[in-house]
Structure formats: C-alpha cells, structure tokens
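Blinded run. Sample ID left blank on purpose so nobody reads anything into the name before looking at the predicted structure. Input follows.
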Amino acid sequence: MAEQLQAAIDHLTEVHAVTSAPTEHVPRAVFHASRLTVLFALILSICVTPIAFAAPWLWLIYLIPPGIIGWVLRVRTTVDPDAVTVRGLLRIRRVPWTQISSLRLGRSGLRNRTGVRAVLTDGGELPLPAVHVRDLPKLAAVSAGRLLDPAGK
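Blinded prediction complete.
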C-alpha cells in the first residue's frame, strides 16, 4: 500500500513538473471598451421601463441594452508582434503587420473621441476599436519595433 501511494505521489510530481514548464511569453495587448458601460446598459434598461409600456411597440426599446452589453463584451483589438486582430460584433479580422503601412489618427465615434485606424498597404483602412491616441505607446511596445513610440521612449 505504501509503495502504491509513493508511486502515485511520484506520478503527480512528474505531471506537475511537465505542466508547469516555463513557456515563452509573447507580448500582447488587448484593447476593449470599458466594462463600466455594462452598468450603464443595465441602468438604461431600468430607466426605459415607463417608456416601454407607453405604446404598443415601444417594448422593443428593451433590445437596446442587450445590444450595448453584447458590443462591450465582444468588440476588441488584440495586438501581438505578428498581427493585429480586430474583433467586431459579427466578424474577426486578423491583419499581419506586413499589410499595415501606417496608422491614421482622428476623431471618431459618437462622443467625438480620438480614434485610431490602421492604413493598409492596399489603401484601405481598418478601424481599431477601443484603441485611442493615449494607447499608442502601448501599441508601439507590442508591435516589435514596427511602430515608433510617439513619446520617444
């Protein structure tokens, strides 16, 4: 019995040693909308209740808060040394750094925030959701030298 117990302990130690082997850390940055927006959507669903029951088809207004929550939880931009991955509500697009010629900074969105777009080598533009001008140093750090840090660091 003691031999079986010792064999089980040895096996667990070997399995732990194999699974806890150090892995190479690949720098990656994920940009997403503030999760605080989910709270806004929940409060909105409560506040529209008097309006939703005022007329026959106004109950459809209850579809707006789940749409906002779905957008917040789904939409993001992931940047790694190999590519930029943009995840929208309905599709995912991965663009390698070799297809990106530059970044375009400008105003975008409903609140007139500064947005960032990737300019592709074929002339098209790829909006980078949740990436703002303030995120450019982080974007440059993860890009493996493909973008220059605007702060000069």
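Unblinding after everyone has recorded impressions. The domain at 27-142 is CATH 2.30.29.30 (PH-domain like).
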